[in-house]
Amino acid sequence: MSYSSFTLEEVLIAFQLEIVESVDIFANIAPIAPSAELIVELAKKVPVAAAVNTEKARSELIVANILIELREKFERRISLFSGIDFNVDAENGLVGVCDFLISLSPMQSLLRAPVIVLVEAKKEDPTPGLGQCVAEMLAAQRFNAQKGNDIPCVYGAATTGTEWKFLKLKGNHLSIDITVYQIAQCDKILGILASMVEQKA
């Protein structure tokens, strides 16, 4: 079993998570204005990604640009990893490849704790990616604990690039924001991601 094998129902049962769905988890997070460069990049790339309509295109042309912008906002004090093996707990199925990981370490050549945000890219609908994203968040929680990092929350996002859904895991309490944020709300998406890095969400 691997991250991609988990549905939301399966991961909730397997790891005995308590779930809360709400529309206001990230509602009060202040938006962050995207740079002029990101606005130009998205204007060029979003239509192409939508037309090609594969996870790879959406990841490379939209999601990666958003996360690079986030890294720049933090003056490269965080690191970003894409498509890496994140094998944490094989016995419980917490193994596989993660689309994107964000670590609070500035080291870019090696994944170091704490891992703070997991982003799972999907082709058409972010909702089916929630189970996989939660499994990756649980792995990050365990990875951080193994490395002795006391991080209160791990966050996640399931996204098509054009639609984003956000999650928060604290202990065994999982919060899912049922609001779907559109790429036109890029400033809000950046604000939420920044609040996750800062542990303010």
Describe this protein with a few key phrases.
single chain; 23% strand; 201 residues; tt1808, chain A; 8-stranded mixed beta sheet; alpha+beta; globular; 5 helices
CATH fold call: tt1808, chain A
Largest sheet: 8 strands, mixed
Q: Uncertain runs with pLDDT below 50, 5 residues or more?
A: none
Binned, the helix content reads 25-40%
Helix-strand sequence: HEHHEEEHEEEEH
Number of strands: 8
Quote the beta fraction: 15-25%
Overall pLDDT metric: 94
Please, how many helices? 5
Q: What structural class do helix, strand and pairing data support?
A: alpha+beta
User: Mind telling me the CATH class?
Assistant: Alpha Beta
Q: Could you provide a short overview of the structure?
A:
The chain is an alpha+beta fold and 201 residues long. It contains 5 helices and 8 strands, in the order H-E-H-H-E-E-E-H-E-E-E-E-H.
